[in-house]
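Researcher: Sequence recovery benchmark, item below. Answer with residues only.
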C-alpha cells in the first residue's frame, strides 16, 4: 500500500492515518464536513403569495469559523403550478433561535424561479440551486429553503418526489 506525505510528514502509512489531532489545521479548500437532508415523499402546498420556510429540509450546522464556507446544493422536485404565469422562487435562510427570525443566507433573497410558464398548469420535475456562502455566524445555526409561490399557488415534492439539500463545509 502507498504512503501519503504532506510537506515531508507521513499522514497515511498505507493502513492508518498518522498524526491527526483536534489541533490539526487543514489547508484552504479542504472539505471539512458534509451535511445532508432529504424530505419525505409528502407533497407540500404553498398558497399564492405565501412564503414557506420548509422544515422538511432542515440542516444543523455546528459552531464554525466564519472564515470557512459552505457550498449548498438545494434540489426541489415535483414542482406543480396552478395557473398560467405562476412560478416558484427558491432561496435559503438560516436561524440561530428556532426560526423566530429567519435571516437571508447568501447574496440575494431568491436564486431561481422554475416552473414559469404561460400555460394553465406546468410541472417541473426538478430545479437545483447551488450557492457558496461564508458561515454567517460562529454560533451553531440551521438552514432551510425559503420557497415563495408567485402569481398563483403551487405544490412541491409531488408524487412521489423527494427534495434534497446538501451542504459541504470547506476550509477558508
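Model:
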Amino acid at each position: 500500500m502507498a504512503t501519503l506525505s504532506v510537506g515531508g510528514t507521513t499522514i497515511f502509512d498505507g493502513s492508518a492515518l498518522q498524526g491527526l489531532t483536534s489541533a490539526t489545521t487543514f489547508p484552504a479548500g479542504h472539505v471539512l464536513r458534509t451535511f445532508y437532508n432529504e424530505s419525505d415523499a409528502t407533497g407540500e402546498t404553498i398558497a399564492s403569495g405565501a412564503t414557506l420556510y420548509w422544515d422538511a429540509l432542515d440542516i444543523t450546522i455546528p459552531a464554525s469559523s466564519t472564515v470557512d464556507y459552505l457550498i449548498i446544493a438545494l434540489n426541489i422536485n415535483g414542482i406543480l403550478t396552478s395557473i398560467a404565469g405562476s412560478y416558484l422562487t427558491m432561496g435559503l435562510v438560516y436561524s440561530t433561535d428556532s426560526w423566530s427570525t429567519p435571516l437571508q443566507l447568501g447574496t440575494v433573497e431568491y436564486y431561481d424561479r422554475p416552473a414559469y410558464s404561460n400555460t394553465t398548469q406546468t410541472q417541473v420535475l426538478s430545479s437545483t440551486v447551488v450557492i457558496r456562502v461564508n458561515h454567517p455566524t460562529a454560533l451553531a445555526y440551521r438552514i432551510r429553503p425559503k420557497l415563495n409561490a408567485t402569481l398563483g399557488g403551487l405544490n412541491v415534492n409531488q408524487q412521489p418526489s423527494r427534495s434534497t439539500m446538501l451542504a459541504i463545509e470547506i476550509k477558508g
